[in-house]
Amino acid sequence: MPSSHYTGPAGHSHDRPPAETGVLLVNLGTPDAPTAAAVRPYLAEFLADPRVIDYPRWLWRPILHGVILRVRPRRSAHAYGRIWTPQGSPLRVGSEALAAALQAELDRRRPGAARVALAMRYGRPPVAAQVEALQRAGARRLLVLPLYPQYSATSTGSVIDAVADAFKRLRWPPELRIVNDYHDDPAHIEALARSIERWWAAHGRGDKLLLSFHGIPERYVRLGDPYLDQCQATARLLRARLGLDEAALQVSFQSRVGREAWLSPYTDATVRRLAGEGARRLDVACPGFAVDCLETLEEIAMQNRDFFRAAGGEELRYIPALNDAPAQVAQLAGLVLRHAQGWPGFAADGAAAGARPPA
Ligand SMILES: C=CC1=C(C)c2cc3[nH]c(cc4nc(cc5[nH]c(cc1n2)c(C)c5CCC(=O)O)C(CCC(=O)O)=C4C)c(C)c3C=C
Ligand SMILES: [Fe+2]
Ligand SMILES: [Fe+2]
Q: What is the pTM of this model?
């Protein structure tokens, strides 16, 4: 499938009438296959991004190509192999399902107003190709929605770079709005809380609830990245909504890479500590991930499950991401409606008679 022709799970551009507003969901990206050969170019693009690793290029390039890309692809491919599905990478499958569901929800709430497309920051389909596809489909306005609830320069900031690069190539770029984050959106907190409560109703409640967020180097926070504040705010709001205290709901940071200090406490050390302190059943949720992926399905649900057991715990239970659950679809649709306000077909809420959803 040529990536320049892919406009999203809703189908080819000629299958739908033109829409004046394009909604571009962007997720991180994932390799095309769980093989070292497919993982290498993906990691090469990801780890060459100066937003992700900010070392001087003359220093970093030889390390990346001479060391990292010789070793890591095989290790990562093995990890991807443990979670791969017949449909492909969970991150891709889940992101496409979410995009299709968001298209359907927007069609219901603002018929014909918007077309949804999905891009990946690394790998395919790239941001530039999807911006161009939306423009070919009639979009004179573009709302970019990175699938990261918390802003980080390493994730959201890098998506903004890719959009800026794509715009440089267009003679007549669309009007642009970008969602920075949705870490404290009440509908997002409510969706997370209900999914955890529903999970508890089905499986019983563990001794502790751990919220594990993706880490970043501590240095980035000292330089002004708001990511840590936003993770803590999400955790505080969720803790209040669930009625838990600081012992019952803890926060940690996963996926550390390299030797620098990253945000702490680290997730692996935390699950071991909790096992040592006598927790038998540990529930773990990852509210920083809109869609399940390697970092949740393999690192948490497999690797950290094993760490917890080896440290004397009984069961680590991973509570799935929101994925394409109706509550997340409705929350993201609400976010789109608020950010697109004033654009054609997006009259202020209340003004679009008959287009409101039933409460
Ligand atoms: C090396 C630096 C990295 C930073 C900084 C970083 C920040 C960051 N990442 C995500 C979300 C995801 N990361 C994923 C995988 C992944 N992350 C890194 C490195 C950094 N991430 C690597 C090398 C990898 C690849 C896998 C591996 O080799 O271990 C994923 C999953 C991708 C998938 O295919 O499933 C996500 C999602 C965020 C939100 C973030 C900053 C806040
Ligand atoms: Fe086509
Ligand atoms: Fe990452």
A: 0.94
